[in-house]
Amino acid sequence: MEKEPHTCERTGMSPYVSVVSQPSAVTRLDCERKNGHRGAVVWLTGLPGSGKSTIAQTTEKILYDLGFQTVTLDGDNIRLGLCADLGFSEVDRNENVRRVVETAKLFLDRGFIVIVALVSPVRQSREKIKQVISPDDFLEIYCNCPLEVCEQRDPKGHYARANLGQISNFTGVSSQYEEPLQPALLLNTNMQEAGESARQLIKLVSEKCAVSVVSR
């Protein structure tokens, strides 16, 4: 049976309009050889306030200074632009993650090291992300920090508002966070500075994306 044409419900695209993937004249391997390293998606997950954004920014700057092609997709920045039309219902959260994954794939295809800082609280959802990206290209990084420490930090005041009932479906308060079972790296962010966490992450990424692996 012929595959049914792709349909985009959000844009109202006609079900009779076929969307066909267009190949690039420049392959991912071409980009990786020019960059001098492999691409990868480094996915930082953890409770709000666990240090994901700070670690992502520190890691990106050091990797950039070392000559790596990097880009950071931060949850807040994504919400201000690409996903500004989404709320925090389960459906909208899933769509938010889906868009981030597809964006990460585009950068990965150009040989970038893509650092994603996103709560992404559902374990099954993160497993799906790994399969979509490819297990060989995906590094799940768990920024582990006790809830009470995250609440004390509360840099954006979200926990305070969530505890007052002003924010619904807030992870850690009215919505559950499911810890990774086997992350590529566990960072105990309540016990070490962001710089130390970044150094551990950079070591892992450097080994994963070493120049010697580009010839694969």
| Oligomeric organization of the protein chains | single chain
Number of helical elements: 8
Going by helix content, strand content and strand pairing, the class is alpha/beta
pLDDT averaged residue by residue? 89
The biggest beta sheet reads: 5 strands, parallel
Q: Strand arrangement, largest sheet?
A: 2-3-1-4-5
The figure for the number of domains is 1
CATH class: Alpha Beta
Give the distance, in angstroms, between the N- and C-terminal Cα atoms: 36 Å
Strand content: 5-15%
Would you identify the regions where 5 or more consecutive residues have pLDDT less than 50? 1-7
Helix amount, in percent? Answer: 25-40%
CATH architecture: 3-Layer(aba) Sandwich
Categorize the overall geometry.
globular
User: What is the strand tally?
Assistant: 5
Return the CATH topology: Rossmann fold
Can you describe what's shown?
The structure is a single chain. By secondary structure, this protein is α/β, with parallel strands linked by helices. It has one domain: Rossmann fold (3-Layer(aba) Sandwich), CATH 3.40.50. The chain contains 8 helices and 5 strands. A 5-stranded parallel β-sheet has the order 2-3-1-4-5, with helices on both faces. α2 (52-65) crosses α8 (194-208) and α4 packs parallel to α5 (123-133). The protein is globular. Mean pLDDT is 89; it is low at 1-7.
Question: Care to give the gist of this entry?
Answer:
It is built from eight helices and five strands; from the N terminus they run αβαβααβαβααβα.
